[in-house]
Amino acid sequence: MSWYVIIPTLMALISPKSGRFNVTAKGGLLENRFFDYKLAMPCIILFTLNGIGLFIGLGNIFLWGTSETGTVILNLGWITYNLIILGAAIAVTREKKQQRNFVRLASNVEAAIKLSGNKLVQCKVHNLSEGGAAINISDESLLTRGERVDLILKDTLSEMSVTVPAEVMRIGDNRVQFMFQEMSSAQMNVLMLMLYSREGNWNHWVTERSGDNPLREFFQVSKHAIRTVFFLLSPRTLFNGIRVIFRQLLGIKPATVTAVAIFSVACIFLFSLAYMPKADAQTAGSYDVTSTYSLEELGADKDIRIEPAYGRQNFPFSLRTDEVVVKAELSLKYSLSAADRENINLLKVLVNDEVVKTITPENEKIDQGSVDISLNPLMIGDHNTLSLELDHDSGEACFDPYESPSWAVISNQSVLTLEKKHLILPNELNQLPLPFFDDKDKNQLNLPFVFGQVPDNELLEASAIISSWMGGLASYRGAVFPAYFNHLPEKYGVVFITPQNLPVWLNGSEINGPTIELITHPENPRGKLLLVQGKNSTEVKLAAQALVSEGRNLAGNKVSVVGQSIPEKRQPYDAPAWLPTHRAVYLSELIDDEELREVSHNVREQKVSFRLPPDLFQWGSKSTPLNVLFQHTIVDEYLISGGSLRLNNVFVENISLYDHGVPKTDETGEPSEFVSAHQSFSMPLDQIYSQNELEFFLYDQPQKERMQNDHVCDENAIKSTRMKLDGTSTMDFSSFPHFTQLPDLAKFVNAGFPYSRYADLSRTAIVMPSRIEEAEVSLFLTLAGVMGRATGAVASHVSVISPSQVGDYKNYEFIVLGGVDNQPLIKRWSDSMPVNFVMPEKMLHQPSRWERFSSEWLNRDSYSQSQDAAERIIKSIKEKEMAVLTGFESPLKNGRSVVLLTASTPAGYAQLTHALVEPKAIALLQGDLAIIDGPSIASFKMADHYNSGEISWLMHARWYLSKHAYWLFALMICGAFALALCSYYLLNKQARDRTRK
Fold first, then answer.
1. Which of 151, 190, 728, 993 is most buried by its number of CB atoms within 10 A?
2. Which of 572, 552, 512 is nearest to 536 (CA)?
3. 940 or 788: whose pLDDT is higher?
4. The domain that contains 529 carries what CATH number?
5. Same domain, 299 and 344
């Protein structure tokens, strides 16, 4: 707003002596009013433009109508603020006629007025200054305005006195104001001593001065701005302003006019180029979107029963960053109890803790059981909570909500409808991962990846870097990445480009090294394409790594990558999404401080989610320690309060809220409401999985009988208990070694194990088929996303290889993709697999004699049952589009794993992709063989386990014997036999010795 100060600022810098200052001389007076039109003109122009904008905005709301009411109101508020600041700036350029004023001090100096005829009138000084005095006098009639008298002043402390000539200026309320006339130097000296040498004369300046008040001062600035409006609109100001403008225009040189004209034409031309419409759809800043959410989709898996005693039922929902709600409606289906018809019951609907509707028998038809509630779009932001609450007022003197007969049932098919404007974002890389992914969008991520031709292995590695990054961002939502060869998706996509892999629609584009560019979809102006480019696949990989490393630090719509390198390989078990298992972990490492909310009557729980490596060996231990530090308020004497700890929805232990002392002082020294407490828990290991959730729950219940006895019936008189966890609480898994049995498809689909042991997949080789189709690449990209979801890390070091390269990767864990017709490893490794794809008539390996014996005699019936069931399923679907997921030990090295994902058709690969991201399907994938036939999934345990990890030989022996009781029985027999032999030998020896003697 201060662009006009560039010239004078530069002039002062270049030639400091050329400047002139038009200011009032020190000690001087401004004799006439003055308004600096030249200095104020830029602010006047901005003030006028803002004023026009204010009237247009008001017209849009009240006259012409607009669908962007919220946006218009926001801009009107900003314009109003601008007008206030600009008005105050213009007011500064106004100067009023000045008059000399002296500081007046309250004084207890004695005084006497010497009238004509030498008559003295005793009086008291009210205040005194260098220029005059105010005198309290009992008889005003003794003096007349304009009369000249002598005023005798006497200081009682210093005994100084002085007689000064004075003129009466004002009389009233028994007070006379005098103006001193010309005095001699001696008289002035004595007067100065009376004013400035008395101790304490100036103390009241400090004690009576009011402190800063920002609100009051803002209103004072606003008052000056309002006065400025009236001043500018006055005829005199308008006339003088026009006269100044014409005078300045007449003084401008022709060369200056020509330069300004050329500059204006250039600006208009550039402005027209910048805003020239490229396509009708492209010029649109937004488009309409309607979303509907049932309460079931918002988390209510069944109808919700609400009672007065149990607080609110909350349903969180969010809004994408690039969306704005213009209309919102809740279609609520409900039923109320019979008690609600007789008493006053309030079913409250709240959005972000603001009541939007109260349903009572008086204002709603109870039998109708449904109501459409219009919600204010301005109340809906990025993160929102829809709440339902039932209040009951029976009219009783003492009402106990826990014994209330009232209830309400809300159907989980009630629907929240949001009509939104989806904003088309500019092509700015610093907004990434928007618009491709928004963490406020709870839907599954579906992001197409585009290749010009069939990608080579290194280009697939580059794509895995980005898909694993996006998979980690998507987290619980799941993410799929459809592959497109040489054609575009409908809206959004990530495109990988090299000169050898150039899409047809980008022919002629020049590639100058690793580059990241965000462009508008050439066929859909509402869409965006993210171009990851390089002269070869290695440069594309560097560009992909820069994208996931820099993120929002990128600027503009195109960035050339310089100095980027692939990061160092990660250490085992250091996945960002996993709890460290070599030390104790603080709660603050799992949840942000702002998410550690107070648990109270309305918000009864605090949830903490955490992940663990799936190979923690917990056998032989019963629990792991959890040390919880928390704060809570003193429990009200009329309440019974407590807490509980749950692990994965299973009760662990109660939390005591008593006997923790008294509240301490806070940081400011004031008494705190909260008491600090500590409690240790033992989390049962049989309830701990790779993905876990801790839940701290608070409950409180009034003591009704005691309340009635004490005549305490006001609910507001009872202070609800509040509790808050401390971020320094710890849990510790460092005592558990890493050891497990594989194959285990459940560990693979839930935690990416054993491949996620190295979070960057530096020990993982993914074997692609010899002929690659879109379906296989889609499955590969989704797999990389699953790994990113499991670890929270980027697959920077994954190796994508061809079947002929497996011999060079013997120490790696393998993931094999493809079918019998395009993946040679299926035939080569068929003897190691639980399924034989080479011989369809004998698809399942037949059990050996030992396996038959162990199945019949050594408690392995489950193996035999799995074998029979798998055979029946395979025979029934062999002719259909079957997809198989199986795991087995690597034929190249013991202890290494192979997971094979195979299908015979693209539809089969689509089934595999769906099974990796759909929660219900993931729960069904177990054992070492999973057969997928459309929506049905059958899992089996077909082969023997192999071990992964290390434990001590003694623990291994104990664990093995606990799993195989028949070996323990055999050892007992052998031990008994050995003991018998020893006993026989010793007894026989004793007999021989006895006979010999």
1. 151
2. 512
3. 788
4. 3.30.379.10
5. yes
Q: Report d(CA 683, CA 694) in Å as an integer.
A: 10
**Could you tell me what percent of the chain has a pLDDT over 70?**
77
892 and 992 assigned to the same domain = no
Given a cut of 70, whether residue 864 has pLDDT beyond it is: no
Distance (Å, whole) CA 567 – CA 200: 73
Centre a 10 Å sphere on the Cβ of residue 628 and count the other Cβ atoms it contains: 21
Tokens matching residue 523 = 């066929």
453 in Cβ contact with 485 (< 8 Å): yes
Secondary structure (3-state) at 581: coil
Q: Report the SS3 class of residue 197.
A: coil
Is the same domain home to 857 and 720? no
User: Which among 532, 450, 458, 531 has a CA at the least distance from the CA of 485?
Assistant: 450
Q: Are 356 and 379 in contact (CB under 8 A)?
A: yes
Q: Pairing state of beta strands 650-655 and 639-647?
A: antiparallel
Reported as a pLDDT band with limits 50, 70 and 90, residue 607 is confident
Q: Which two tokens stand for residue 570?
A: 């990660």
Examine the pLDDT at 174 and tell me if it is beyond 70.
yes
pLDDT of residue 480: 95
Mean pLDDT of all residues in the chain? 80
Give the domain extent around 977: 964-996
Amino acid at 479: A
Asked if pLDDT for residue 393 goes beyond 70, the answer is: no
The verdict on 888 and 749 lying in the same domain is yes
pLDDT on residue 659? 66
C-alpha gyration radius of the chain: 43
What is the token pair recorded at 603? 């918000």
Residue 22 burial by Cβ neighbours in a 10 Å radius (0-12, 13-18, 19+)? exposed
- Asked, for residue 820, whether it belongs to a domain, the answer is yes
Q: Computed from CA positions of residues 797, 801, 804, 810, in that sequence, does the dihedral angle turn out positive or negative?
A: positive
pLDDT for res 758: 94
Check if the beta carbon of residue 197 is closer than 8 Å to that of residue 109: no
606 bridge partner residues? 696
Amino acid at position 958, single letter: R
Q: How far apart are CA 936 and CA 747, in angstroms?
A: 20
| 206 within some domain | no
Are 693 and 758 within one domain?
A: no
Residue 856 has pLDDT above 60, yes or no: no
Q: Are strands 492-497 and 528-533 parallel, antiparallel or unpaired?
A: parallel
Please give the backbone phi and psi of residue 766, each rounded to the nearest 5 degrees, phi first.
-100, 120
pLDDT higher than threshold 50 for residue 297: yes
Read off the CATH number of the domain in which 403 is found.
2.60.120.260
Mean predicted confidence (pLDDT) in 176-205: 78
981 CB-contact burial (10 Å; exposed 0-12 / middle 13-18 / buried 19+): exposed
Tokens of 578: 């996993």
Instruction: Give pLDDT, residue 481.
Output: 96
In a domain, residue 278? The reply is: no
Q: Is residue 511 part of a domain?
A: yes
| φ, ψ at 933 (rounded to 5°) | -130, 90
Q: Does 790 share its domain with 917? A: yes
Alpha-carbon gap, residue 579 to 240, rounded angstroms = 75
**What is the maximal distance between C-alpha atoms in the chain?**
165
Q: Is 986 strand, coil or helix?
A: helix
Closest of 621, 791, 586, 618 to residue 691, by C-alpha = 791
Domain count, the chain: 7
My answer on whether 360 and 378 are in the same domain is: yes
Contact 364/344 with Cβ under 8 angstroms? Answer: no
As a whole number of angstroms, the distance between CA 747 and CA 751 comes to 5
What is the C-alpha to C-alpha distance for residues 662 and 690, in angstroms, rounded to an integer? 40
Angstrom distance (rounded) from CA 985 to CA 938: 58
Find the Cα–Cα–Cα–Cα dihedral 775, 780, 784, 785, rounded to 10°: 10
Same domain, residue pair 116 and 15 = no
